[in-house]
Write a structure and sequence with these properties.
The complex is a heterodimer of chains A (810) and B (556). Chain A is mostly helical and 810 residues long. Chain A contains 29 helices and 2 strands. In chain A, strand 1 (61-71) and strand 2 form a beta hairpin. Chain B is globular and about 75 Å long. Chain B has 556 residues and is mainly alpha-helical. The chains are: A mainly alpha (810), B mainly alpha (556). At the A-B interface, strand 1, strand 2, helix 5, helix 6 and helix 7 of A face strand 1, helix 6, helix 7, helix 8 and helix 13 of B.
Chain lengths: 810, 556
């Protein structure tokens, strides 16, 4: 059976290769099923190998596939070390991995890169298996970086969003800082032991000087701090939630992030030889990380962010255990955590899936009605992580706290406070998500503010319109007055013209007319004379007619002027009306403004028990609110709920692995014994004290649950006093990092680039310039064109070759 | 056994078939053939160039197959007296140090031709490329200082014309800069070579000889003289590598060169410097190399950090890749001057690795440029959406360049750092931070170019890899993966030559012994079982004896 171990990583590798080649053609859902089957098969083989190991009296088995990197005395193989520790890891990686693969078939349904997702997922499982099965530091490092790059691919899986891409890059680069420590540890191990195979390294540990053992251990710990998200390198993990939820469950909760704890446990003989302060340092880093992350988790509203900080916190517990010499407790809690945290993440994914990609818990509440399976299993996970007996988390956390107390009561106190906070923030999450009022359709703080903004903008726009209209009306008065003045002037002119025409006409006199008529009569038959006379008569008559016309025009002009005068009055009346209108709209806008000032939500933290009063801005709320009202939360398909149920069973029962009651039920402790090499701390606590500590832990958990119940379901106390802005901003640590990287860091890099461009290259060009100046007198031969030089070299080389050929003796 | 048989066969047939001479001459013949093809038949010209380069590549692979992997000395040696009066000979040979560089040269040329095309005047373009291939082969195969120098100079000319004639933007400035920098170094080296040959002849009272092995074995110069001459070589090689602070020709030349030129420059020609340090620096001047090692380790580390930092701030994608070369070459120098097996083997392997991954990166950047007519990072965005295959290829090559375990770059970098750590701990500790920086600048560039949503039409509709391009990239990607998973066939061929070189340095440099780690304990899994049992018993005894177990910590 043991010989089959190579198959364990080979199956996911085969899945990766097949999916890489034909995954797109297989498509949905077959690509997902293939990947799942490969991991499930790997789990099957792992069970067989595990059975094989149980049947052996010796608990170590090595298998070498081929020599990987040989160079001088340095040589590492691609080889596996099967022992209780590696098999424990392999079993839960493949077991939980297979469940998460199954879940992902449902979760990734409809994604355009469905098959690609499983390509990465299988590659991840393969890398993770190499990490834990490798029989030397370098193969572990291969897996270590392999899972890191898969994490990078999967965090930025939806790469078109800048934020996802940034989160992926941040995860990889931050991890690389830790990997530097891992690499240097490897170098030092090789130099001082001569080999980096675990068989050599661990057995040689007792002979190492303490300083060397300390250096190697702490350098490995630097790597662990990166991969397992401890202070100061934890900042990548909360951002890593940008990846699809199955990724968060598998990589960023259950498996990859525990790799650091695996590494420290694997190399425990080295830590055992280190100075005493080295494990103490590790314990403190773990304890402080656990506490810090728990305080941040309290104020998060994103359902996945809470779980992310919770994971950082729980990983802190694991390092507290490692530093306290409680390796078995660390692995124990790692297993129970893998169950309940994978369960919680997948549950969160199911919720997100059921409420249309919503992740804000303020818009959840009361979902237990709609998704009973998700809710029930999530409750199990909650009780497990909160440390409520008899759920698994209680047993494993309690064991860590006992060892921590044995090492230092202060460490224990930090752990206890963290446990209380854990119970609190997880209860808060459960109550906000599944219980209380259904707030799915509630507008949020941001949306209500957006509503007020929209309403204000509308009112102000109306006021501005009215102001414009009033202005236009006032302008109309001026225009009317101008028109009146013009018409008046025209009327005066017409009057003057009419008077002149009248005068002229009247100057003609009747005698002259009569004379003209007589002249016509007198002209008789003399046609010429008659024509002459006719013309004179007509001219006289026309004067009269013209005068009449002018008089009519003058009348008309006067009429128009009168009308223009009347128009002024009308315009004045309209302007007055518009002015009134503008004033009233202005007043209305001011009213909206004061109303907004009065009714805008003062804080983002609402009372969860009643819907925010938005009657005043209902029609201005963003469309998303109305859309949410149309959408109904629903339970996820069986592909997703089935893994939840299996994981829930694990979260309940995993405590059975290592019950503290008597030596005979400490199964895990006995099983891991060989791999711990007698370095497990001997617990010096009396039975009574242990029970007392456990009782305190349970009391802490109960207090946390009760406090959350009072605040989040009963509305007692002030949420604002708990969800402090500084906690919501994660103590401002991310911002500080960003400020340093973007400020002095960037300036330093830019300075180097400037130096290269200006100083270094400047010297080069300066020298070239000086040479050109000095050689200007040699222009005749040196034309300054390098082209010529190049050709000269070519010709010269040819000439030389010719010369040599002529002298050649062969 | 079959490999050995072939090797013996090849050895035996060496006089009958001058394989190494053929490797040098065949591309030159190709250049002559190009001369007879109609200048307007671009396809025919390309085909002829491909034919000759591929044939040369095939020969280089045959050389690899026939190479005796246990042999530490030069194989396929050809020695013909040439100019007797000056002791110049047509002396060629190959060993584990040059073997893979010859193969790399063989395969990179056809790939560069397949992966890119000139925009005008294909005839001189292909002719110059073929001449360049001849020159590069000659540099790696020469065992005569005079022949080496001629080839070292000859490669300048075609590259100068390739950059100046078919480059982009400020191509003339870049070509001139490249040429002048290298010429300055070469001039010094020429003085060094002549001094070495003359002084050695005088000291030995014998005839003048340019023969490399003769010169290396005689070691008859005064210490200071040897150090001085070593420095003249070192300046030439240092410029060629290039080392900080004489690196500024590189970003200009790489950026303005046509794609094929960049591929060859980075893939093959930068190795002329690092190879020179091994073949002519350490071999001819072992004492001086040991003496100067701390300086070169320092320069190497500066190059690693400085190249990476400056690369991070580049706005031009090709320039960024060019600066990454400065960092990678810093690693090779670090390994070389660690002067132990891990460092030297890692350095030689890393020359190949850098050729593969940076060659591939330049090809990919060239492909993006062909499509988008820009290399400005700010102009490119969201390319992964439209060109997933291109993005996948870029990702893999980028990860190789970052040094991801399982891909080729890691093996070389790791061995270099390991060797450097054993030799001079703190250099390696600082240099290892370069691994962080590499991830920073490449992933940041990748994010800006490939991730996000495409912000303009040209980026949203960019064409994905074509079949010909995929064909050019395939061998590189295949080798990147193979070398990462199974570097043994490479390392075991490199090792004998490295061992011989280290022994040579030890023999001729007083007070120098190879810096090595503790001898490996060679424990087995059974030892682990016994260790577990023993430590458990001890633990039980302690727990039982102490009762309270107060001192259990550490479990000693």
């Amino acid at each position: 059976m043991l010989e089959l171990v190579w198959l364990i990583p080979a199956l996911p590798l085969a899945g990766f290769v097949v999916l890489l080649l034909v995954g797109r053609r297989l498509g949905e859902p077959f690509a997902g099923w293939l990947a799942t089957l490969m991991v499930a098969g790997s789990f099957g083989v792992a069970v067989a190998v595990w059975a094989g190991l149980l049947a052996e009296s010796e608990r170590f088995f090595g298998q070498v596939l081929f020599e990987w990197v040989p160079a001088g005395s340095f040589s590492v193989d691609v080889g596996f070390l099967v022992d209780p520790l590696s098999m424990t890891m392999v079993l839960f990686i493949t077991g939980i991995g297979a469940l998460i693969h199954l879940y992902a078939i449902g979760y990734m349904h409809g994604d355009e890169n469905f098959s690609k997702f499983f390509v990465y997922l299988n590659l991840f499982v393969f890398s993770m298996l190499l990490l834990v099965l490798g029989d030397n530091l370098l193969l572990t490092f291969l897996g270590w970086e392999g899972v890191g790059v898969c994490s990078y691919f999967l965090i930025s899986f939806w790469f078109t969003e800048e934020a996802n891409a940034s989160a992926g890059k941040k995860a990889f680069v931050t991890n690389r800082i830790g990997d530097w420590g891992f690499m240097v540890a490897t170098f030092l191990a090789f130099q001082s032991v001569g080999s980096i195979r675990y068989a050599d390294l661990l057995t040689a540990a007792p002979g190492l000087p303490a300083v060397t053992a300390t250096a190697i251990s702490l350098l490995l710990f630097v790597g662990a701090v990166g991969k397992s998200a401890q202070i100061p390198l934890y900042v990548w993990l909360p951002d890593a939630m940008a990846g699809p939820t199955p990724v968060s469950a598998l990589i960023h909760a259950a498996t990859m992030v525990t790799a650091g704890v695996y590494l420290m446990t694997r190399t425990n003989p080295l830590l055992a030889e280190a100075y005493d302060w080295a494990p103490t340092l590790i314990a403190w880093v773990g304890a402080v990380t656990a506490l810090l992350a728990a305080t941040i988790a309290v104020a998060q509203n994103d359902i996945k962010k809470v779980l992310a900080y919770s994971t950082v916190s729980q990983l802190g517990y694991l390092f507290l255990a490692v530093g306290s010499g409680a390796y078995v407790a660390a692995i124990f809690h790692m297993i129970t955590h893998a169950f309940f945290k994978a369960l919680l993440f997948l549950g969160a994914g199911s919720v997100i899936h059921g409420v249309h990609d919503e992740q804000d818990m303020r818009r959840m509440g009361g979902l237990a009605r709609f998704m009973p399976v998700t809710a029930a299993t999530f409750v199990v996970g909650w009780l497990a992580i909160a440390g409520v007996p008899p759920f698994s988390g209680f047993w494993s956390k309690d064991e860590i706290l006992a060892y921590a107390f044995d090492k230092s009561p202060v460490l224990w106190a930090v752990g206890l406070v963290t446990a209380l906070l854990t119970a609190f923030y997880m209860s808060r999450q459960v109550f906000m998500t599944f219980f209380g009022r259904l707030r799915y359709a509630d507008p949020t703080y941001e949306e209500i503010n957006a509503g007020w903004d929209a309403k204000l903008v509308a009112a102000q726009a109306r006021a501005a319109d009215a102001r414009d209209a009033a202005g236009t009306a006032r302008g109309d008065i001026d225009a009317a007055e101008e028109r009146f003045a013009a018409a008046q002037a025209k009327a005066v002119d017409a009057e003057r013209a009419a008077t002149a025409a009248m005068q002229e006409a009247s100057s003609v006199g009747d005698e002259q007319l009569a004379a003209a008529r007589a002249a016509v009569t007198a002209a008789g038959d003399d046609r010429a004379a008659r024509r002459e006379a006719d013309r004179a008569l007509k001219a006289l008559e026309k004067l009269g007619k013209d005068a009449e016309k002018a008089q009519a025009a003058a009348l008309k002009a006067q009429d128009e002027a009168d009308r223009a005068g009347a128009a002024i009055t009308t315009a004045e009346r309209l302007a007055a009306d518009a002015g009134l209108m503008a004033e009233s709209e202005q007043a209305a806008a001011a009213k909206v403004e004061s109303e907004a000032q009065q009714h805008r939500p003062r804080t983002a933290i609402f009372d969860l028990r009643q819907a925010p009063d938005v009657a005043r801005v209902t029609e201005h709320l963003p469309e998303a609110v109305a859309q949410r009202r149309e959408y109904h939360p629903h339970e996820s398909p069986w592909l997703m709920t089935a893994p939840l149920v299996v994981l829930a069973l694990g979260a309940v029962g995993a405590g059975l692995l290592n019950l503290p009651f008597s030596d005979s039920v400490k199964t895990l402790e006995h099983w891991l014994e060989p791999a711990v090499f007698g370095n497990e701390r001997v617990l010096g606590l009396s039975g009574g004290l242990q029970v007392g500590l456990a009782a305190l832990a349970v009391a802490g958990a109960a207090l946390g649950v009760f406090a959350a119940y009072a605040v989040y379901l009963k509305g007692k106390g002030s949420r604002r006093a708990i969800e402090l802005p500084i906690l919501a901003r994660a103590w401002g640590i991310d911002e500080a990092y960003a400020a340093v990287a973007g400020g002095p860091g960037r300036a330093l890099f830019a300075g180097a680039a400037w130096f290269d461009r200006t100083v270094i290259d400047g010297i080069v060009n300066g020298v070239a310039w000086v040479v050109r100046m000095l050689s200007s007198r040699l222009r005749v031969v040196q034309t300054g064109f390098v082209r010529t030089y190049a050709l000269t070299v070519a010709v010269g080389a040819l000439a030389l070759l010719g010369f040599l050929l002529s002298r050649a003796t062969f | 056994m079959t490999v050995l048989d072939t090797a013996q066969l090849a050895q035996a047939s060496a006089p009958g078939f001058p394989l190494l001479t053929t490797l040098i001459v065949l591309p030159a013949v190709g250049a002559v053939v190009i001369g007879f093809v109609n200048a307007r038949r671009a396809d025919t010209l390309r085909l002829v160039a491909l034919l000759f380069t591929t044939a040369t590549a095939a020969l280089s692979i045959w050389l690899l197959a026939a190479f005796d992997k246990t042999g530490a000395g030069f194989q396929f040696v050809e020695r013909r007296t040439w100019v007797e009066g000056f002791g110049i000979g047509w002396r060629l040979g190959v060993d584990g140090i040059s073997l893979f560089l010859v193969v790399l040269t063989g395969i990179l040329f056809p790939i560069a031709i397949l992966g890119s095309e000139p925009h005008h005047e294909p005839k001189p373009y292909y002719a110059w490329l073929l001449v360049l291939m001849s020159g590069c082969m000659g540099v790696f195969l020469a065992l005569d200082l005079f022949v080496f120098f001629v080839f070292f100079e000859v490669v300048l000319v075609p590259m100068y014309f390739l950059i100046g004639g078919w480059g982009h933007g400020q191509r003339v400035y870049a070509a001139v800069k490249f040429f002048i920098f290298t010429m300055v170094g070469s001039a010094l080296m020429l003085v060094g070579i002549v001094s070495l040959v003359v002084l050695t002849a005088r000291a030995r009272g014998g005839e003048i000889s340019f023969d490399l092995t003769t010169l290396a074995d005689s070691q008859s110069l005064a210490t200071n003289t040897a150090r001085l001459i070593f420095l003249s070589f070192a300046v030439a090689f240092g410029i060629k590598v290039p080392l900080f602070p004489v690196h500024t020709w590189l970003p200009d030349a790489h950026t303005e060169a046509p794609t094929a030129g960049s591929v060859i420059l980075a893939g093959v020609m930068l190795k002329l410097g690092t190879y020179g340090f091994l073949r002519f620096g350490l071999y001819l001047f072992p004492e001086a190399a040991v003496w100067a090692a701390p300086a070169f380790l320092t320069i190497g580390v500066i190059g690693i950090i400085y190249g990476a930092v400056v690369a991070t701030m580049q706005r031009d994608l090709k320039r960024l890749v060019a600066y990454s070369s400065v960092a990678h070459l810093g690693f090779i120098i670090l390994g070389t001057f660690a002067l132990n097996r891990q460092g030297l083997s890692g350095g030689i392997l890393q020359m190949v690795n850098h050729g593969l991954s940076t060659g591939a990166l330049f090809l990919l950047v060239g492909m993006i440029y062909e499509r988008r007519h820009t290399r400005e990072i700010a102009e490119l965005n969201g390319l992964q959406k439209a060109a997933p295959m291109l993005a996948a290829a870029f990702t893999l090559v980028m990860l190789s360049s970052i040094g991801l375990p399982g891909l080729n770059g890691f093996v070389g970098e790791f061995l270099i750092l390991l060797g450097a750590f054993v030799a001079h701990r703190w250099y390696a500790v600082v240099a290892a931070t370069g691994v962080i920086l590499a991830a920073l600048y490449l992933l940041w560039a990748y994010q800006r170019v490939f991730h996000g949503a495409p912000r303009n039409e040209a980026n949203a509709t960019m064409a994905d890899l074509r079949a010909g391009e995929a064909l050019a990239l395939a061998p590189l990607i295949g080798l990147i993966v193979f070398l990462g998973v199974y570097p043994k066939p490479f390392l075991e061929r490199i090792e004998p030559a490295v061992v011989a070189l280290v022994a040579h340095v030890e023999r001729h440099a007083e007070d120098f012994t190879e810096p090595v780690a503790v001898a490996p304990p060679q424990r087995s899994t059974e030892d682990l079982v016994r260790f577990a049992e023993a430590s458990h018993e001890e633990h039980e005894a302690e727990a039982g004896g102490e009762g309270e177990g107060e001192h259990a910590e550490g479990g000693r």
